[in-house]
Amino acid sequence: DVQLQASGGGLVQAGGSLRLSCAASGEFTFDDYVIAWFRQAPGKERELVATINSYGVTRYTDSVKGRFTISRDNVKNTVYLQMNSLKPEDTAVYYCTSFVWGQGTLVTVSS
Known about the structure:
four-stranded antiparallel β-sheet; 111 residues
């Protein structure tokens, strides 16, 4: 079981920075997990912001590229989201989540 605790949110002026933390605990191997940050603005659907896999490969939604940086510390079992040049449209509740990839199954569609 993995428990995640997000922290670091607050009030910041446009153009400012914040660093969010996602601390993981429980009986698991943290290195195996992909960690993702989502956000949900008032009246909007939850959206994926950034992910980082066990190899440190990162992905970002277009709206935060160049401004946000996701990183992980596998010793501290923590993932960070450094948010720079913040904009009013970044206002949202930010969530972190974790998952491991399954083996996958091939789908082939023939014509």
